[in-house]
Amino acid sequence: MKKKILALVLALCLFGVSESQVLARPSAGGKCKSVGKFATVKGATLVCTKIGSSKVWVALDKSAFVAPTVVSVAIAPSATLTYYLQGQTIYVIVAFSSPVVVTGAPQIFLDSANIGRMSYIAGSGTSALLFAYVTVTGDIDNEGFGLKANSLTLNGGTIKASNGTAANLAHIAIAKSTTRKLTATAPATTVTTTTVATATATTTTTAATTTTTTAAAPTISSVAFKEPTNDKWIPGQSLQVKVIFNVPVVVTGSPYISLLSDGINKATYLDGSGGTSLIFAYTILSGDIDNTGVGIAASAIVLNSGTIKSASGVTATLTHTAVARSSTRKILAS
Asked: Which residue, 30, 110, 253, 309, is most buried by CB atoms nearer than 10 A?
């Protein structure tokens, strides 16, 4: 009999239950000492939980220990939607059936001849984990990459439910796609020109097709202010304009955008080279006043000896629509 009791004590201690708690015969609703400790009694799993000012044993439903599973995997589209450029970041989102907690550095692998391992960067505590890979010079994939099935690995880390149950990492593959090519420069745009030649001696007509390749110039999709708080800017605040292009552009020098205003005249390029969105900014100074409201004239970007070009070196077309002056964009002293 003593051996059986000793065996029971040792078994329950494996679940974090002290000997004094074992001898107290844990039962649902009964008092316990250490919050978070587990015990198994007649097939039921109990956990010591604080309810109000009391610590009591609470029976856990078996469903609480169901392992989280992967319900979907997705490769985030690039800014261009049809290809990636070296230097851009590739993202993969892994969605689980329930929130998971991550430790260490899990990884997932792309299906590509030249790029592969992606590192976990965010999402612990939620049901969606984010993995990323920053492409570098030399990364090329002319076929278009995908995602390997069941390639999510712990790499010495963990992915678990909040109760400690390890997640099931099985997931489907994502087929390779020509919309996910990775290149050093933007793919060239193909333009086809057809000329028709007519024989002079007969009525027979033949067609000859000439194909030429050229890289399209980036164009501006939209120009907009980052609207100020309370319809005004005051000294010390940053007036910002976002210019969005249809493809990524590279900026050199200090281009600026001319402003329609009673007190200031331009916002200078601040950030965004390598992406599709450029930010132009001006820091409001003491004495800058505009009671009418700031606007932007049409086609107001000035290169100022700088450049705005595609990754392949084609100069961008800087034509854009105007942004009307507005009373919601005043500049005041305070």
From this structure: 110
Pairing of the two strands 181-183 and 83-85: parallel
pLDDT digits (tens, 9 = 90+) for 269-322: 998 888 888 999 999 998 899 999 999 999 999 999 999 998 878 899 999 999
In CATH, which of 1.20.120, 3.90.1580, 1.10.10, 2.60.40 is domain 70-183?
A: 2.60.40
Q: Identify the helix (H) or strand (E) that includes residue 22.
A: helix 19-23
How far apart CA 37 and CA 56 sit, in angstroms, is 11
**Domain 220-331 class in CATH:** mainly beta
In degrees and rounded to multiples of 5, residue 268 shows phi and psi of -95, 145
> How is residue 76 written in tokens?
């985030």
pLDDT at residue 126 in the model: 93
> Do 182 and 141 form a contact (C-beta atoms < 8 A)?
yes
pLDDT band at 60 (very low <50, low <70, confident <90, very high): confident
CA–CA dist 191, 98 (Å, integer)? 50
Three-state DSSP string of 103-138: ECCCEEEEECCCCCEEEEEECCCCCEEEEEEECCCC
